[in-house]
Design a protein that fits this description.
The chain is of the alpha/beta class. The protein has helices spanning 22-35, 42-45, 53-61, 68-84, 94-103, 116-126, 149-157, 172-180, 209-220, and strands spanning 9-12, 107-111, 134-136, 165-169, 184-188, 204-206. It has two domains: 9-20 and 89-220, Rossmann fold; 22-86, DNA polymerase, domain 1, CATH 1.10.150. Strand 2 (107-111), helix 6 and strand 3 (134-136) form a beta-alpha-beta unit. The chain is globular and about 55 Å long.
Amino acid sequence: MSQTFPWRTVLFDVDGTLIDSNDAHAEAWSRALIDNGLDVSVSDVRPLIGMGGDKLLPGLAHVDESSSRGVAIAARKKELFTAALPALRPTPGARSLLESLHDRRLDLIVATSAGDREMRAILEQAGLADLFSAHTTKDDAAESKPDPDIVLAALARGHAQPASTVMVGDTPYDIEAARRAGVAAIALRCGGYWTDGDLRGAIAIYDDPADLLARYFLAQWPV
């Protein structure tokens, strides 16, 4: 490893970062809300993708996730997203990036606002499940992103220090959660929707995992 390379642990968001799933999530949430009597469009939902249901439902519909209506909406959303999952594909270079970091003995940890079961299904669909040493989801945290709970849980699970850890994500919520946990963040554009200005809290912005691997990680580790 290059002596100048500062990271020992890399935390990864999943949706939009490693798999092209953000639009599918937005469509599933919108349909689930409509099916439960709430007129919420995909365009209303899309800016909140990256948060967990604990943030999204109150923000969109003033519905508590733990209420009977919230539980019904979340169940319908899971059903719809599960139906969409087989058509989803990993983002460009996702496996190559993870394999390169894994081969260089960095600790790779999932840090996602998705629930544990959904996270595992997504990683299997993307063909990436075998490359992570640990996983943290909203099931491990009191609050989802942009609160830092999931990032802090990932640090604890990996016995990692903030100063030697970087978070890779595709939304401002990833960047904010990392910042509040004392962790640097790298942003990817492949999640769509967000401008570079929206992602300005990141230390760097790349198009997708392939771009990040080629222009940053391989630059640190010349072949």
